[in-house]
Amino acid sequence: MKRLAWILGSVAILGLLQWAATAFLLDGPVRQGPYYYQIIILAGVNIILAVSLNLTNGITGQFSIGHAGFFAVGAYVSASLTYYGGPALRHALAFLPAFAQNGALLVIALLASALATALAGLLVGIPSLRLRGDYLAIVTLGFGEIIRVLILNIDAVGGARGFVGIPKLSNFFWVYLLATMTVATVWNLSRSSYGRAFLAIRENEIAAQAMGVDVTRHKVTAFVISSMFAGMAGCLFGHYTMYLHTNSFTFVKSFEIIIMIAIGGLGSIEGAILGAVVLTVLPELFRGFEGYRIVIYSLALILIMIYRPQGLLGRASLLGRRGGGAVTSAVKGGR
Amino acid sequence: MLSLKGVSTRYGAIQALSDVSLEVAQGGIATLIGANGAGKSTTLRSIMGLAHPHSGDVLFEGKRLNRVPTHRIAALGISLVPEGRAVFANLTVAENLELGGYLQKDRNKLKRDMDHVYEVFPRLKERLAQMAGTLSGGEQQMLAIGRAIMARPRLLLLDEPSLGLAPLMVHVIFDAIARINAEGTTILLVEQNANLALHRSQHAYVLETGRIIMHGPSSVLAQDPRVKEAYLGE
Question: Is B105 part of a structural domain of the chain?
Fold first, then answer.
């Protein structure tokens, strides 16, 4: 009941904000409104990417550096679906009122991207997460590049020309609805007893195993969930920009997402959100220095590692301390 | 309850255990003493599935444990307190204990088990919201043991519980171990502090360069001239 109220409340608020954004930024009085609108959308996409990567890198402690690969898989799979299958799907959805058709089509595209990236996550995760150590970093790095080169050579999705003609289905409402879902999922997971095992793996794999935690299974689960959200972010991105090019999915993009969570604080959800917003807005403010972006990112990462290794927010949680653990507080306070 | 039959374990080309056989009887405290690098920890790792013997059998209540994954072995009723304690440093004391009871799905039982741990180690109750990494060495050892008994193990494997602790703290820890044993948990204790281990156990094995060279009732081994000379420093 409470959960339903939460969901309905979020949808209502996002709907209102969508209406306000359309009225003021897109059709309204604000100068350069559409430009701001786009930055807000990109920030939302980055929030999904950062918070989901944080589940693997920050909470479970497995270092993945190929998040952009999953972002690309989700974007291209869903775009192919709506580009080639769009007319047929629209025909099948004709029974719906006109305003709901776009939404339904987007939901189908989101599901397809989630499915495809979950599969890709399994394929990459199972062999590399069985081993202890940094294999995941190496494999995900390779995966990201392979995917990019593969797409570059598929003519049906535009290859080096880019994928043109993707229908515009996504908007502020959908991007932030998914961002909310991502945050809620990672938040609930990290506080459940199942999810506490992710933290245990990060802290000490051997001790976690000795407690009865199936380490491989948990690592793969975290990785697959994380990949799935990255894929859905890709779907929302492609259906907003209506154009995809492999240049948006290079190693630099993966690196950017890692910096977002490193700046905010590995393992902190609020930190990942903050990092995503900062790293979307700052490059816009400093457009003139675009060529130096990767140099600035590297410097920022080095400085943070030296002066504030726990990130800007660290492990501190804005939404209250964890204190004495879920069971203790649940049983004690009856909350 | 637990028996090792001719267990040999290698790390790459290095033979860590050769033909180790031992028996841990239900209800007692057995100990494995020996110098650094004798293979004591490897024996525990081989039991727990963290190292894989290339020959020989590890049997727990008649079930063969070789090649059973570690998390399944934990579910069978064996808990390990790893060397160096290995507490989850960035989690609170209470969260560490909850993780110890990871396989316990009944929240009320979990709560009761936590109260039991607080009874054995009252100090932990005062620290329950503190990050485990900020505890003193002795408190971390209490937490590591408390976390292990959260799983209600029938067999508890302890790897060097006295390591790096002040003498007073060592006694607190060993009294707690005696209590846990008296409450029905069988214990296999690995120790460098042979004197302490022989006084606190019923049966002892002496491990030297991966082989069992002597075993018998602890009280008898404590009087053995070779043991006295090599391990008790007399």
Answer: no
